[in-house]
Amino acid sequence: MSQSQSQSQSQSQSRHGSQETVRYPLPQQGALDAPADWQRLRSQCPVATVELPSGDEATLLTRHEDVKALLSDPRFARPTAQDGAARLAPGGAGGAAASGSSDVLSLPAKGEPHQQWRRRVSKWFTAKRMTALRPGMTETAERLVDDMVAVGAPADLKAHVGFLLPVYVICDMLGVPAQDRDRFSHWSDALLSITRFTQEETERAQTEFVQYMSGHIDAKRENPADDLISTLIQDSASGEGLSDEELLATAMGLLVAGHETTANMIGKMVAMLLADRRRWERLLADPSLVRTAVEEALRFDTNLGFGLRRYLTEDAEIGGRTVPGGTTVICSMPAANRDEDVFDGAEDMDLGRSPNPHLIFGAGPHSCLGQALARTELQVVLEVLSRKLPTLELAVPVDDLERVEGLLVGGLRTVPVTW
C-alpha cells in the first residue's frame, strides 16, 4: 500500500468520541517496512480501538511499557472459546488457533494449571539442551546450504533452508517423521489462518491433524523412544503428567509453533541483513556479532503477524486508561520494539545492540516456551551462511519481496538469493 493510500485510510478512520478507531492490521508499504502509523499511535493513541477484518473491535497496544505490563499480568491469557472475544475474520472464520474455537486444542490458559503444564514441557527447551542439540543443528544447516548451492543460484533460501531446518529439528524432538513435512505445513497454515482458508477448510485440516497425531501418540505408547512425546506419555502413565487431551494439544501445538514461526523468521532475518549490504559486511567482519545480530533481527522485525491477544476478564488500567473487562487486547510486540523511549535509534538496525529488551517472545507467565530453540536455530543459520556463503545477496530488489498474507504469523513468501 502506498503512503498516499495509508494517509487516505488514516483520514477515513472513524471516531468514538475522542477515541480513534483504526483498521487492523495496519497498512505497510514494503515487506520489511514498519507501518507509518506505529509512531503516531505510540505518541498520540497508545491504547487504540481497532476494527478487525471481522468487523469486531479490539484494543491495540503499541508502547513497550504497556505491552510488557499486559503480557506479564498473570490475570489475563489468550481468548478461549468460552470468552466471546472479538472474532478475527469475517463470519468468524479462521483457524482453531485464531478463533479459539477448538476444545481439542485447549490447554490450561492461566494460573497454576498453566504453570504446571509449562514445567512438564519446558525441560525439553532449556538452554542446556539446546547446547547439546547445536552440533546436530549445525550439521543439518550445512547440508541444507550445500544442497541449495548444488541446485544453483538463484534459489529460495526460505524453501531450501528456512523451512527445512526447523522442521527437521522439531520433528526429531517430537519423534514424528520429517517426510510428512508438507502435510504439517498445510495443517499449520490452516490452524493459523485468519483469511487464507475458509472455516470448512480449517476444520477439515484440524480433523486430519488430530487423527494423524492421535495415531502417532498411540504408536508411541506401544513403542516409546527418546523423544518429547514418549516422555510425556510416560509421565502421564505415572499419574503426574498430562491428560490425553492436553497431550494431543501439546503435540500439535509444538509441531505448529516449532517450525512455522522460526521458518519465517530465518527468511526475514536474512532478508533484513542483505537489504542493506553494510549490515551483512559488518557481520562478516565480526562473526562474534551473531548472537546480538539475531536479537536485533528479532527486535527489528516488522512482519511478526497479528500480535498476541489477551482477553480481559476484569477491568484493567492500561496506559492511564481503564479498559473494561470483556475487551480483547492485541499486543503489538513489533511496534513496542520500535519504542524510542526504550531503544535508542529504534529505527536503525544495530547488530551490536546490547542490552536489547525486545518483546518478540512475549513476557511473563506466557512467554514463548521455545525461545531458546528459536534463538539457537537462528544463530546456527547465521553462522553457517556467513561462513559458507559470504557473497550471499538478494536476487531481487527489496521492494519485490512479498509478505505472507492471511495468517496469524508473518513472513516472506520467498527469499530469492544468489551468491
TrEMBL record:
Region of interest (Disordered), residue spans: 1-36, 85-112
Keyword Metal-binding in record: yes
Cited SUPFAM superfamilies: Cytochrome P450 (SSF48264)
Signal peptide span: none
Tagged with keyword Heme: yes
Key words of the record: Heme, Iron, Metal-binding, Monooxygenase, Oxidoreductase
Compositionally biased intervals (Low complexity): 1-14
One MF term in the entry's GO annotations: iron ion binding
Entries under PANTHER family matching the protein: P450, PUTATIVE (EUROFUNG)-RELATED
Family indicated by similarity: Belongs to the cytochrome P450 family.
Protein name: Cytochrome
